[in-house]
Amino acid sequence: MSNLILVIWTIIKIMMVMVPLLLSVAWLPYAERKIIGYMQIRIGPNRVGPRGWLQPIADAMKLMFKEITVPASANKVLFLLSPVLCIAAALGAWAVIPFSDALVLSNCNVGLLYVLAISSMGVYGIIIAGWASNSKYSFLGSMRSTAQMVAYEISMGFALVGVVVGAGSLNLGSIVHAQQGGLFHWFWFPMLPLLVIYFISAVAETNRAPFDVTEGESEIVAGFHLEYSGMSFAVFFLAEYANMILVSMLASLLFLGGWLSPFEGVPILGEPSIFWLLLKVSFFLLLYLWFRATFPRYRYDQIMRLGWKVFIPITIAWLLLIGALVVTGWAWWNV
Amino acid sequence: MNRLGLAERLRNHFEGVYTACVQDREQFILTVPSERLLEVAQQLRDEPDLRFDMLVDLCGVDYLTYGEGSWQGERFAVVYQLLSLAHNERVRVKVFVEGDPPIVDSVVDLWESSNWYEREVFDLYGILFEGHPDLRRILTDYGFVGHPLRKDFPVSGHVEMRYDAQRGRVVYQPVSIEPREHPPRVIRRDNRYEGKDLGGRR
Amino acid sequence: MAEIRNYTLNFGPQHPAAHGVLRLILEMDGEVVQRADPHIGLLHRGTEKLAERRAFNQNIGYLTRMDYVSMVANEHPYVLAVERLLGIEPPLRAQYIRVMFDEISRILNHLFFLGTHGLDLGAMTMFLYTFREREDLFDCYEAVSGARMHTHYYRPGGVYRDLPDQMPQHQLSPWTSQKDIDRLNANRGGSLLDFLWDFTERFPACVDEYETLLTENRIWKQRTVGIAVVSPERAVQLGFTGAMLRGSGVEWDLRKKQPYAVYDRLDFDIPVGINGDCYDRYLVRVEELRQSNRIIRQCIDWLRRNPGPVMVDDRKVAPPTREAMKQDMESLIHHFKLFSEGYSVPEGEIYVAVEHPKGEMGVYLISDGANKPYRFRTRTAGFAHLAAMNELVRGHMLSDVVSVVGTIDIVFGEIDR
Fold this sequence. Notes:
By secondary structure, chain B is an alpha/beta fold.
């Protein structure tokens, strides 16, 4: 009996994470269209509902009622499996994300490792999608995605190792706690290069502009999801946006002190709150959109060069520095 | 710069080669027999006082119905528009050809820009270019029959396309539309232009 | 052991970066292009054949639709050719108007180039920024000819009508408030020239805005510097003209070298590149935007001070006014003959070239004395540029194909004709 209650309670908790997440995933494209719209001196969606607020619902309806076409020469099983793989990885990682001291689905001791492991699974979905579609464009897209993922997973991993060394823990909650003590105790300050590299790598990991060569709209049309339509496409789409929110969340937790307030010590304003966390996540999401509106797209070999020849050496060097600070006891944030 | 006019230079170089060398409305037109084309072209490009280093355009002309049939001479012409960047001059070389199929030497070794132009002339006029590396059709459809810019090719063409529902694909069939001409072609001699110097009349 | 061989990739004709209907057969070794074979003709409309069946004035409409990005500039070589065959010269004011509209279409064309080139390389915002300015210039087209794109405005002997004294106004609609209307109409109070003057005041700042987004952008430079390098010798050999030739460092602009219309009376500079890569060609075109702006200002200035006729006073070529037609028998006859049969052009042949925004656009006209051209041939710049596609992309990556397609600024209306 108690087992049943546990299961039900767990499902309810999962729902409490998933429903707001999926809602924000649905409205993030709307925000993207609106914000990029304003950056590009146009209005963006404004027909469905007041100021276009119901646009995501209209989009969802359209995608749901569209036929899912499977190319004749595609591998049917893998073709339909790959979007599932993508979304599973994108949502699965949320299990260990803490929203505040108490609000966490699973307070796992190796939370960060789990996130890294799960989120790198997502690339299999992309690779399989490109291969199963049996189209040259899709295949090129998935090849690019694989190479890019390998390169940036490393620099991203190294950047996070810096955080782990600094905090002395793999538990996301403890990492946030390690940053207590005000704005300059947050890890963004001692580890600024790591933050920059982490976020750029994260943009590359999620295949967003200017690293969107796997989709490469003007070169390989839509890359790995070229042959997908209707809901199967929508699932890729959702996974992409869920991943965006995930890496923004991670960046805020690991570098910007999660739910800690920037005004620590000030009454009321200084209280840690989920509000701060959401604000920080929104900031990173805004950066995503801003990048997209500003930058041209990298070429595939230039991305590789940036990842292997620039980011990895910098992260390793900074890692050594952080390690030295921690070992010598000069790490002022560890009080 | 005290040098000879282009007309004199052309005459000096090609005396006895060309069949005509005229100056008309400030343009120089050099007509050469097709067998001497390559030799003339080579000189036009390489002689230091000519240096026509750019082939701007190459096109065909079909004189079949010229002046309502008053044309005497070969039916086809290939026209080369040459430009000299060094001397800022233009010259037009015309080669008249006859035959079935008409054949002209390709100038692709002298001016690479002629590659596609010659393909186009082949496509639209059916003039063959000897020595061209890749003489395929270029503008018309894959599997097109005929040479559409010849004067005996009707404007409406010979075939049209439609979707055949029974066979489930697009098929060709003979054209169903009537050719019509509007306005009718007329040649009127305008006495204002007879025997006058046409340059710069206001 | 499986045999490793190159594969072919069908790029277009339905492809986001195909700029219309380019079909490229790419032979690829991984991501590297070994050979490119452009297949064109999917937009072939047989303009040259059709033009042989139409009276001289009716053909202007075909010309406008050649390069549908710089519309009115296409008409220029044709009307010049007909004028030279007829031996007439348009009034000076008409020539100034033509130059002004040529430069407007140069800006239109280069803005389109900038926008689509940016879009192809992922800088989506450029596209929307440049189209904002294009919109104003379309309004100029519309004010003067009634059509936003295919103007049919130049005529042998001048231009269709004089510049209007009033700009069309935005009207109130259920979707726009009075405030928006007032804002949109703010610079439309005066004549076309006032509106255009206002545009030229704003425009240099807009160009600066484009440049801040692209010129010093590292990604933009990585995508364009050193891509598709053409040496000056090769550029001449391949028949490049316009910005493609100037980008390679060859100082050649027909507006300066073989001036037509009133270009010899205007003050402007010709930008020239150094390395002959995509980036230089981009810079050349951006600078041409500024120079065109300068030319337009000079034209506006002259046009404001010098009113006068815009069409030759020759009833065999130019139609009579409506008033004259209603009172005067001869005018009515002229009108009828002109619009039913057209005018006969003396026997002869002519090649006229102008500096079209994309390069040299030439019209080769043979008349046998009839009211229709015997042979009508257009030399368009894009054809020669696209012919060099194979050479430009060989050894580059697939993404660079997109840069090259952008940099040669192709529009299929003029390539396929």
